[in-house]
Specification:
Length: 343
C-alpha cells in the first residue's frame, strides 16, 4: 500500500511516499481503506521536530481518519464490511478500567493512532473495533475524518471540562485554525456569545459568515484582552478556549471575568508562558488543560451536523503525496479550517 513516512523531522521535514506491506488484523480489529485524513497541528509539530515523545522511528502520522471497512476479525461485533467509520484517537483495548468507563482515549493499554502506532496517512489501517465509530449516511467522508479531532476535542472542552451554559461568553484564540474554527461554531451552537480571535485580517469576514458574534484581530501592538475588556465593559469573558498556547497565555488570562475559566487546547510554540499570578488568585480563575475526545463527543458532533448547527470547514482537499505542501501552508499560516487528504 502507499503511505507517507516521516524519515526526518525538521524545518523542512524529509518525507517518503512509498509502498509498504498492508497491515494484517487481529481478531478484534478492522482493516479499513482510508477515505480521508485531516492534517492536524499535532502532525505539523511532529514533522517539525517539536513533539518527539512516544514517536517511533519512521512514523506514519495522521489521527483524523475516516475509512471504509474492507475486512474484519472474527470477534468484531456491530460493524460490518462496507461500513464507514471514524477512528477515535487511541487504539484502545476495550477491557481495561478506563475503556469500561467510557474513557477509551485514556486506555491503560492504549497507543495513540498516528503517534505511537500507524496513522491515517496511508492507504489502509488496522483499527481496534473499540476505536471505531460508525458514520451515518448524511456525513460525507470528506468531513467525517474531522469528527473526533478537532470536533470531538472541542465538544469535550466545552462540555465536560467547562460545563458551559447558554448565554456564557466564550473567547477562542486561533479561531480560523482547524481546531478553533470548530470550537467557535460548537460554542455558538450551545448558545454562547462568541469572540473569535485571529491574527489574519483576511480571515475576519469568513469567520463572521460562520456566525461568530465578534471577531477580534490580534496584533503585536495591542493585547486582545484590552479589546475584550473594552467590549465587555471591563467584565471579561466567562471562558477562554486557547488553541494557541504560550504566545497568548497572558492575554487569555487577562480576558477572563472573575471566576472565569481558561481551557488550554493547544500549544503551538513550545515556549514558556508568563502570567501575573495575582490575576489568577484575586479573580478566582481556573486554568485547565484538555486533550482527546470520548465516543459520546463524536456522537454529539454527528448530532450537531445533522441539525445544521455545525459546518465542518475544509480548507482544501489534497492527495496524500502532497503532505509537504500542506506542511508549508500551515507553517505560513495560510489555512482556514482543515486540510483533508483524500486520494
Ligand atoms: Zn487532530
Ligand atoms: Zn483499555
Amino acid at each position: 500500500m502507499k503511505a507517507v513516512v516521516l524519515k526526518q523531522p525538521g524545518t523542512v521535514p524529509i518525507l517518503s511516499y512509498i509502498d509498504i506491506p498492508e497491515p494484517s488484523i487481529k481478531s478484534d480489529e478492522l482493516l479499513i481503506k482510508v477515505l480521508s485524513a485531516g492534517f492536524c497541528r499535532h502532525d505539523f509539530l511532529v514533522m517539525n521536530g517539536t513533539l518527539r515523545r512516544g514517536i517511533p522511528s519512521d512514523p506514519i502520522l495522521g489521527h483524523e481518519i475516516c475509512g471504509e471497512i474492507i475486512e474484519k476479525g472474527e470477534e468484531v461485533e456491530n460493524l460490518n464490511i462496507g461500513d464507514r467509520i471514524v477512528t477515535l484517537l487511541t487504539q484502545s483495548c476495550g477491557t481495561c478500567e478506563q475503556c469500561q468507563s467510557d474513557n477509551e482515549h485514556r486506555c491503560e493499554n492504549g497507543i495513540g493512532i498516528g503517534h505511537g502506532s500507524q496513522g491515517g496517512f496511508a492507504e489502509f489501517l488496522a483499527v481496534k473495533q473499540n476505536s471505531a465509530i460508525l458514520i451515518p449516511e448524511f456525513v460525507s467522508s470528506d468531513i467525517a475524518c474531522l469528527l473526533t479531532c478537532p470536533i470531538g476535542v472541542g465538544i469535550q472542552a466545552l462540555t465536560d471540562i467547562t460545563n458551559i451554559k447558554p448565554g456564557s461568553s466564550v473567547a477562542i484564540t486561533g479561531a480560523s485554525g482547524g481546531l478553533g474554527i470548530h470550537v467557535a461554531q460548537i460554542a455558538k451552537a450551545m448558545g454562547c456569545y462568541t469572540f473569535g480571535i485571529t491574527s489574519s485580517e483576511g480571515k475576519i469576514s469568513s469567520l463572521m459568515e460562520l456566525g461568530l458574534d465578534e471577531v477580534i484581530l490580534s496584533s503585536d501592538d495591542l493585547e486582545f484582552s484590552e479589546i475584550i475588556q473594552a467590549m465587555t465593559a471591563d467584565i471579561g469573558v466567562d471562558v477562554v478556549i486557547d488553541c494557541v498556547g504560550s504566545k497568548y497565555f497572558s492575554s487569555c488570562v487577562s480576558s477572563l471575568a472573575s471566576n472565569g475559566k481558561l481551557i488550554l487546547l493547544g500549544e503551538l510554540g513550545n515556549a514558556k508562558a508568563q502570567v501575573n499570578l495575582a490575576e489568577i488568585l484575586f479573580r478566582d480563575l481556573t486554568i485547565k488543560g484538555s486533550t482527546g475526545a470520548r465516543r459520546k463527543h463524536v456522537l454529539k458532533g454527528i448530532d450537531l451536523i445533522k441539525n445544521d448547527l455545525l459546518r465542518p470547514v475544509v480548507h482544501t482537499k489534497l492527495p496524500l503525496k502532497d503532505l509537504l505542501i500542506a506542511f508549508g501552508w500551515m507553517k505560513e499560516n495560510k489555512l482556514f479550517g482543515r486540510i483533508v487528504f483524500a486520494d
